[in-house]
Amino acid sequence: MQSDATTIIALRGWHPAIARAEAKAMFADSDIARTDSRRLLTATGESDWENAKLMSGCECVLVNGGISKWTSLENLLQQIKSEKVEDMAVECWRHEGKIPVATKDIERQVGGLFHDKGSTFNLENPKRRFGIVLDNSAGYVAWGWMIGQGPGKHGWSAMRANKRPFFRPVSLEPRLARAAVNIAAGVSEGYVVDPMCGTGGILIESALTGRPTLGIDFDPVMVEGCQQNIDWAEVNAEVKRGDATRFELPKNLAAVVVDPPYGRNSPSDERLIEDMLTNILAQDVDSKLVAILPVESGGENLDEEISTNIKLPGYRIDAAFGIPVHKSLGRVMIIASASTQD
Ligand SMILES: C[S@@+](CC[C@H](N)C(=O)[O-])C[C@H]1O[C@@H](n2cnc3c(N)ncnc32)[C@H](O)[C@@H]1O
Fold first, then answer.
1. Who lines ligand 1 at CB under 6 A?
2. Considering the domain 161-338 in this protein, what is its CATH number?
3. In whole angstroms, what is the distance from residue 187 CA to residue 27 CA?
4. How many beta carbons lie within 10 A of that of residue 158, not counting itself?
5. What does the alpha-carbon distance between residue 176 and residue 86 come to, in Å, rounded to a whole number?
6. What whole-number distance in Å separates Cα of residue 139 and Cα of residue 111?
């Protein structure tokens, strides 16, 4: 193992800004820094890289690797430190644009380096995978040993909320719900609670990451349908009928993640959110809050945080991200902590 080697986090393309926030939360023991590339981060200090497997926006972590500007295949081969490894595979993929070299050629040549050291290969079921990502958003190449699924293998596009037995148009898409849960709870232990859980989009993603999970909804039809979805997903989450403005929180709470009914000009929705927050703050001031609210589309920036004038009484807004839904609808994901000034 080289102690001076670099750790790189390769992000999926859906929403790099949200994926960065997720990486910071899930690899909280490391310093995460941006590179010129929108989908490559570097990490200093050890974290539990296996968390990559639980994440929405992380393709994989590349450990004991490196990153440099792409110049030529020869230059890349010179920088890679090969060693003897049993049952390995080499995978090369692209982020955006085209660095003018075939990924298959890179895989063959890098495989050759390891072969020369006596490595054996197992493409069907490798014990270790060496990854190379060509990122043409800024002309970078990054490499290292892969932890996590890698590109396109997580199947988020196949994981649609409308495949569940109980679907409503309000159901959150799984990759958004998963990112929200991971950003909110990070590496904290304890419950994830959704006090307005609807069909259970947030609950299912939280339970799939192994967190203790509780959902509340006022509407008995939602509670029953949500239970059906939980059973269908075969996950361990509890859903109860209750009122978000007065339910009792579990003692060990990591985060509240909520997607409340919200109309911009609806005082009753604003009041409902305010009362929900008051109820949470009366019982707990340490947990994180992530709220997802519908807004008019147009405020999205997939690469950066956005500013928002939405206020969550009693909370300080740490960051906000815009998410496109369709032509006239967007969403804003707000990350907040209890405000100590109040
Ligand atoms: C936008 S939906 C949530 C959708 C959910 N994220 C999903 O993936 O299906 C908002 C939910 O809040 C619930 N709700 C409204 N007022 C409530 C209250 N006072 N207490 C608890 N739930 C409430 C509604 O019944 C509805 O299911």
1. 170-172, 195-199, 201-202, 216-219, 222, 243-245, 259-261, 272
2. 3.40.50.150
3. 8
4. 8
5. 37
6. 22
CA 101 / ligand 1 centre spacing (Å): 50
Model confidence pLDDT, tens digit, residues 15-41: 999 999 999 999 999 999 999 999 999
Q: Which two tokens stand for residue 51?
A: 């968390």
Place of tokens 């939360």: 25
> What would the pLDDT profile of 180-223 be if each residue is shown by its tens digit?
999 999 999 999 999 999 999 999 999 999 999 999 999 999 99
Listing DSSP states for 65-93 in one string gives EEEEE---HHHHHHH------SSEEEEEE
CB 312 within 8 A of CB 291: yes
H/E element, 132: strand 128-135
**10 Å Cβ neighbour count for 1?**
6
What are the residue boundaries of the structural domains of the chain, listed by start? 6-147, 161-338
Residue count of the chain, please give it. 342
Contact 335, 256 (CB under 8 A): no
Q: Which CATH number fits domain 6-147: 3.40.640.10, 3.40.50.300, 3.40.250.10, 3.30.2130.30?
A: 3.30.2130.30
